[in-house]
Specification:
Elements: E1 6-8, E2 27-29, E3 50-52, E4 71-73, E5 93-95, E6 121-123, H1 132-136, E7 147-149, H2 161-168, E8 174-175, E9 178-179, H3 182-202
Parallel strand pairs: 1-2, 2-3, 3-4, 4-5, 5-6, 6-7, 7-8
Antiparallel strand pairs: 8-9
Length: 213
């Protein structure tokens, strides 16, 4: 089928992605199978822009670095590690949603790259991200990020959660689908200035105020 552009193989008990080679394929649905490892040939899938792999058994994003991919859906897998994402230079939407219990138990946001210049929407709902300040800095490198979902994660319960996020990712427009208000942006700016001043003061008092990183 050399002219195949859309294909759906969901709910088929598929265990491997090897052998998928359709040069004109644009949309591929492999939801709810038993795939444990992604092995895709970028040269054989030059036009693939939408890939759905929800409800499989992937533990890593290794092998998913497809440069033409624009939308990638990986919700309800077994992800614990992110890799090869630096190759996803065209990716606009990335879904990594977990259920808060057994699926997608990501604890770290290591793996994001400044090469991901097109990413606009990132869904991390129900993952295990628990350290807000150090982890949020790992996605500051995403210049086009406008929407972020962190609902039902440990960090979403932290004090000043929304303020901390917008202070670090200033181009963000929505967090958990709620638009940032002018008041929140102003509060974030004031907190930034406060920390910046404390950083200056701490040059003469290293055991006192903390630097703004």
């Amino acid at each position: 089928m050399p002219y195949l552009q859309r294909a759906s193989f969901q709910n088929n008990g598929i265990t491997t992605t090897e052998g998928i080679s359709h040069p004109l394929l644009e949309v591929l649905n492999l939801n709810n199978n038993k795939i444990t490892e992604a092995k895709f040939d970028g040269e054989a899938l030059k036009k693939l822009s939408v890939l759905e792999l929800r409800g499989n058994q992937l533990t890593s994003t290794a092998g998913l670095g497809l440069p033409k991919l624009q939308r990638l859906y990986l919700g309800e897998n077994l992800l614990t590690q992110l890799s090869d994402l630096e190759k996803c230079v065209s990716l606009k939407i990335l879904h990594l949603r977990g259920d808060g219990e057994t699926t997608n138990q990501l604890e770290s946001l290591d793996g994001f790259s400044k090469n991901m210049v097109a990413l606009q929407y990132l869904n991390l709902r129900g993952t295990k991200i628990s350290a807000l300040k150090p982890e949020i800095k790992k996605i500051k490198c995403l210049p086009m990020l406008r929407g972020l979902i962190l609902k039902d994660t440990p960090v979403s319960k932290e004090e000043e959660y929304r303020i901390e996020v917008i202070m670090n990712i200033r181009n963000l427009e929505r967090l958990d689908k709620d638009i940032f208000t002018d008041e929140e942006r102003q509060e974030a700016q004031e907190l930034y200035r406060q920390r910046e001043e404390e950083g200056k003061l701490s040059e003469n008092n290293p055991d006192g105020a903390m630097f703004l990183e």
